[in-house]
Amino acid sequence: MSDAVVMTSVSKVYGRGGGAVAALREVSVTLPSGGFTAVMGPSGSGKSTFLHCAAGLDRPTSGSVRLGGTELSGMGETALTELRRERIGFVFQAYNLVPSLTVEQNVLLPLKLGRAKVDREWLAEVLRRVGLGDRARHRPAELSGGQQQRVALARALVTRPEVVFGDEPTGALDTMTARDVLSLLRETVDALGQTVVMVTHDPVAASYADTVLFLADGRIVDALPAPTPAAVADRMTRLGAYA
Ligand SMILES: Nc1ncnc2c1ncn2[C@@H]1O[C@H](COP(=O)(O)OP(=O)(O)OP(=O)(O)O)[C@@H](O)[C@H]1O
């Protein structure tokens, strides 16, 4: 397995002087290509900061982040924006769909913005995989929350990104719908070899991953392969997350 993301001694400090907060402290980790990694930890442990630094949405204060061999630190804003658009997919808790556009137009948005050619066959396959093959001309308001998140996932996949990053992608969904979306993420890893990195608070959601990384106070303190919901919840309890 090659490496999708390699972080070396990544630190992130917000603010300065007495009010400075160290959100990440010397984090070094390799996220394997074709793997599904979940990131958990107590509130304020640095999960979002980790995801944002790994995905080039935020810059570390020090350390190195490499995506498929490309060093992100030192890249200019324009190059970084282009890299995110072409090589990374995002799924957030809020679906961030454009209400006036159809499902298909929303999914095609990253390609239009990047002036990239549309591969109609791949578009059809992505829509079919997320179960929206017959909804291409619908608008977001005509869809359920779970369906809207599946549109967001299709939009993330359409550029064939090296990594899909999810920040609480199922946070706004009810339990059954969340499982649907998680199964779909799992399937993109198993069937398409997609690399997925997801921040979550939910031990059940984390159990869909190959490995769970645990953050505490800005450090990776544990990694759990082949996670079960019970094992994840147990580690979280030991980190004091549910105290
Ligand atoms: N823009 C910012 N300015 C200052 N401090 C920040 C900023 N963003 C995050 N922090 C601080 O950095 C630390 C890590 O925050 P982060 O959002 O990464 O944690 P998290 O684990 O994602 O938390 P949660 O689970 O509550 O979303 C926290 O102490 C937070 O208050």
UniProtKB/TrEMBL annotation:
InterPro entries: AAA+_ATPase, ABC_transporter-like_ATP-bd, ABC_transporter-like_CS, ABC_transpr_LolD-like, MacB-like_ATP-bd, P-loop_NTPase. Keywords: ATP-binding, Nucleotide-binding, Transport. Residues 5-242 form the ABC transporter domain. Gene3D superfamilies: P-loop containing nucleotide triphosphate hydrolases (3.40.50.300). One of its GO terms (molecular function) is ATP binding. It comes from the Bacteria. PROSITE patterns: ABC_TRANSPORTER_1 (PS00211), ABC_TRANSPORTER_2 (PS50893). This is ABC transporter ATP-binding protein. It comes from Actinomadura miaoliensis.
